[in-house]
Design brief:
With about 240 residues, the protein is of the alpha+beta class. It has one domain. About 30% of the residues lie in helices and about 25% in strands. It is globular.
Length: about 240
């Protein structure tokens, strides 16, 4: 996997694609149909994964990086996500919760101030379903393979843009709560929540970009795969056909 190429896509999209996200109506779990990596669109997945918030004084960017993103990135880069080596890499992103984050203090008339990794470690929390707030793991608690991947991603950021690389930070959280339950699966029902300085970042799962569209059988309109009903008419949606 050529990580530099993958992260160039991630880095550019996270800075330029600043469209707001929209909440989806409740989905109908039994009719979910997953797209294959060949059917998904990397830009659509990134749009689902990046969250942007702003206060009176600060700007926040958070990008969750689940295994589903990397499977598509591998495929787009000509690699097979199904090989033994790549499955091992993808498994790491299931065992941990990995994010890229940036926090900026907006100064009018002066240069903006960017939070360092230590400051982000103190302010960024993963919120478990049991109400527990989890802090990013320090290097001593990371497995050797995850340490190597985190270091590789940081190196790639520096190769892409040394100045901006210092403004975006890779943070790694546990993949499971104290009871051994996974925090999130991008392809299954659930949610994932983070908080920075009181700013909430919430993901409703599964991600619509990973699902085949659903169709209104009456109007023929197409909606994201995690929609259960037509938001305009209330009609129940049917699973769409596979992409060609």
């Amino acid at each position: 996997m050529r990580a530099q190429t993958l992260f160039k896509i991630l880095f550019a999209a996270s800075l330029l694609a600043m469209r707001p996200s929209h909440a989806a109506p409740p989905a109908d779990p039994p009719s979910y149909q997953m797209r294959t990596p060949a059917e998904t669109n990397l830009g659509d997945i990134l749009q689902d994964l990046q969250k942007i918030r702003a206060s009176d004084t600060h700007f926040y960017l958070l990008i969750w990086m689940p295994s589903a993103f990397w499977a598509k990135a591998m495929h787009s880069n000509g690699d097979d996500p199904g090989t033994k080596q790549n499955r091992k890499v993808l498994g790491l992103f299931d065992n941990y919760t990995v994010v890229v984050s940036m926090k900026t203090r907006q100064s009018f008339g002066d240069e903006d101030e960017y939070a360092g990794q230590d400051e982000l470690r103190k302010s960024l929390r993963l919120l478990g379903d049991d109400g527990t707030a989890y802090s990013p793991l320090d290097d001593k608690r990371l497995g050797g393979e995850m340490k190597m991947i985190a270091a590789m991603l940081k190196t790639v950021l520096n190769q892409i843009d040394e100045k901006n690389a210092d403004q975006m930070h890779i943070l790694v959280f546990p993949g499971k709560d104290g009871a051994g339950k996974r925090f999130a699966d991008a392809t299954a029902d659930g949610s994932l929540r983070f908080e920075i300085d009181g700013q909430r970042f919430s993901y409703r799962l599964p991600l619509g970009s990973l699902l085949r569209p659903r169709i209104d059988p009456v109007s023929g309109e197409s909606f994201p795969g995690n929609y259960g009903f037509n938001p305009y008419t209330g009609n129940k949606l049917d699973a769409g056909a596979a992409s060609k």
